């Protein structure tokens, strides 16, 4: 996790631990079961508070 700031790395670790213990909830209030979703939540919170986190990837337009 070299590309992320220290605060963001700590937050991701904390959310992964919460997910492992079954305590992490998504925005809709449902329990998070996916590790990828836990990482996404862990990165979005520091991003909102202004920590050093790269912008989330945008979906590229499909080419025909």
Q: How does this structure look, described?
A:
The chain is mainly α. It has a domain at 6-49. 47% of the residues lie in helices and 0% in strands. The chain is built from two helices and no strands. Helix 1 runs antiparallel to helix 2. The longest helix is centred in the N-terminal third of the chain and has 15 residues, at 6-20. The protein is globular, with a radius of gyration of 13 Å. It starts with 5 loop residues before the first helix and ends in a 15-residue tail after the last helix.
Could you list some keywords that capture this structure?
single chain; 2 helices; globular
Shape: globular
Mean of pLDDT: 80
Classification by helices and strands: mainly alpha
Specify the helix fraction band.
40-55%
Q: Report the radius of gyration as a whole number of Å.
A: 13 Å
Question: Which parts are unreliable, with pLDDT below 50 for 5 consecutive residues or more?
Answer: none
Count of DSSP-assigned helices: 2
* Count of β-strands: 0
